[in-house]
TrEMBL record:
Molecular function, one GO term: 6-phosphogluconolactonase activity
Name of the molecule in the record: Probable 6-phosphogluconolactonase
Species this protein is from: Malus domestica
Reactions catalysed according to its record: 6-phospho-D-glucono-1,5-lactone + H2O = 6-phospho-D-gluconate + H(+)
Boundaries of every Glucosamine/galactosamine-6-phosphate isomerase domain copy: 57-287
Highest taxon, organism lineage: Eukaryota
Pathway per the UniProt entry: Carbohydrate degradation; pentose phosphate pathway; D-ribulose 5-phosphate from D-glucose 6-phosphate (oxidative stage): step 2/3
Classification via NCBIfam families: pgl
């Protein structure tokens, strides 16, 4: 029996994605067949989600830079601005290629507006600050307009910082710098970039934490983060899931189990880790993984970029 299906492919990292029709002869050796059948199941069951699994961190960084530059270009074309929310951690280093050619010259940096999907409530000069990390390794190397960088108020309590940040976002929704979701009334960021911890947390949404249930606020706070520092503010799930595009970037073996739980355990009401609850309502979710982080995915879920 021969099965026909479409696979997403690209010839190299510099060329665009395309869809290729593949005919699978069901007498193909078993392992190969499982992989192809699995890919077909992924694209038919979760059309809203894409997995990009890379051989090396260098490949992943190039693809991530391409992806961000493409969404920036499309947003500027459509809305005249690009509203992007960053996270902290290893993600920032993996965005480094955006500071190099060609992106440093081709991206329309003056149209970028920067936000944080989560921030640690520490001084902006503190080594734990997500703002400081982004400033040192990214923002100081590209010509983004300083007044377009919306960091948190670091001189108040976590609760006040969350309230303040929610207010800032509301003002920018009013002035249309940030779009608004037509189905959730939440801000609709053009792109939210998330890292993922080994426990499956994204932004500062940690496993089994009550903040995961927050439905009313756009920005919430916690004072008991299991990962130091304890005080943080975070976008809530409704805001993350209202974005036009969300990327989860996870590398290294320590993330493999969480990636498996988030990606493979689908169709469940309660995904076992917060990353699994990132399911944009209308937007597109892309996972960027290296081989190590993808090493525990079900065989059928994997396909390489
Ligand atoms: O504490 C945090 O951790 C996550 C993951 O960091 P990573 O270094 O393991 O990639 C990060 O995405 C989040 O923004 C940060 O506050």
């Amino acid at each position: 029996m021969v099965l026909a299906m479409g696979l997403k492919a690209r010839d190299s990292l510099d060329t665009p994605w395309f869809y290729r029709s593949v005919e699978l002869n069901l007498e193909t050796p078993a392992a190969h067949a499982v992989e192809l059948v699995g890919s077909m199941a992924l694209s038919s069951v979760r059309k809203d989600r894409e997995l990009r699994i890379h051989e090396s961190l260098d490949d992943l960084s190039t693809d991530l830079a391409d992806y961000i530059a493409e969404i920036s270009e499309a947003s500027v074309k459509e809305r005249g601005v690009f509203a992007i929310a960053l996270s902290g951690g290893s993600l920032i280093g993996l965005m480094g290629k955006l500071c190099e050619a060609p992106y440093n010259k081709t991206v329309d940096w003056a149209k970028w507006y920067i936000f944080w999907a989560d921030e640690r409530v520490v001084a902006k000069s503190h080594v734990d600050s997500n703002y400081k990390l982004a400033k040192d390794r990214f923002l100081s190397k590209v010509p983004i307009i300083p007044s377009h960088v919306h960091s948190i108020n670091d001189s108040v309590s976590a609760e006040e910082a969350a309230d303040d940040y929610g207010f800032v976002i509301r003002q920018l929704v009013k002035s249309r710098v940030i779009s608004v979701s037509d189905i959730s009334d939440c801000p609709k960021f053009d792109l939210i970039l998330l890292g993922m911890g080994p426990d499956g947390h994204v932004a500062s949404l940690f496993p089994n934490h009550s903040v995961l249930e927050e439905k009313d606020e756009w920005v919430s706070f916690i004072t008991d983060s299991p990962k130091p520092p304890p005080e943080r503010i975070t976008f809530t799930l409704p805001v993350i899931n209202s974005a036009s595009n969300v990327a989860i970037v996870a590398t290294g073996e320590s993330k493999a189990e969480a990636a498996h739980l988030a990606v493979d355990v689908i169709g469940s009401d309660l995904p076992p880790v917060p990353a699994g609850v990132v399911q944009p309502l209308k937007g597109k979710l892309v996972w960027f993984l290296d081989k190590a982080a993808a090493s525990k995915l079900d065989a059928g879920t994997q396909f390489s970029a």
